[in-house]
Amino acid sequence: MGFVRRALVSMLLAFALLGPAQAASLRAAVAAYDRGNFNAAAAMFQPLALAGNARAQSYLGFLFQTGHGVPQSYVDAVYWYQRAAEQGDTSAQYMLGLLYDKGQGVAQNYVEAHKWLNLAAAHASPRSRDYSARLRDAMATKMTRGEITTARWLAVRWFPVPEHPHAVVVVPHP
């Protein structure tokens, strides 16, 4: 039993140390992005995004959407925005809503667009909340009352689901 306990403590310690390292990697990637070094930023965001970091996923989605540092691909942008949006990243929710509105990388779907724009407006910073809400309301002018009701219902029932790519299961030997 001592071995299992030591192994578990070692793994937990390793994951605790991964947090600061991941934060430092994210800061370096954002700095590269801010400097316009999109190739380096994309290379740094990729492992963080794969590890479940919502902010890195959102940045990577934007890089794919715009074709900076990676080949332009709306499909890949939707993939990364979706992963980040499901975790509650407001920027990803906003961008995903716009892609659903235009049908870029996904089939055009006003209900999904409204849902994501509604969530983005609800969780936006006070400074950008009004703009997000106006965009959501403009989106609603393309929809029927039933579609708006459905979109609102989906937004109310939505909750963030963090990714757990490093889940560890320790099974003690009998």
What keyword list fits this structure?
single chain, 174 residues, mainly alpha, Serine Threonine Protein Phosphatase 5, Tetratricopeptide repeat
Which consecutive residue ranges, at least 5 long each, have pLDDT under 50? Answer: 1-18, 167-171
Average pLDDT rating: 87
CATH class of the domain at 50-157: Mainly Alpha
Distance between the termini: 10 Å
Q: Give the number of helices.
A: 8
How would you sum up this structure, described in words?
With 174 residues, the protein is mainly α. The chain is built from eight helices and no strands. The protein has helices spanning 2-34, 38-50, 54-66, 74-86, 90-102, 110-123, 126-140, 145-157. Helices cover 73% and strands 0% of the residues. It has a domain at 50-157: Alpha Horseshoe (Serine Threonine Protein Phosphatase 5, Tetratricopeptide repeat), CATH 1.25.40. It is globular and about 45 Å long. Residues 1-18 and 167-171 have low confidence and may be disordered. The chain starts with a helix and ends in a 17-residue tail after the last helix.
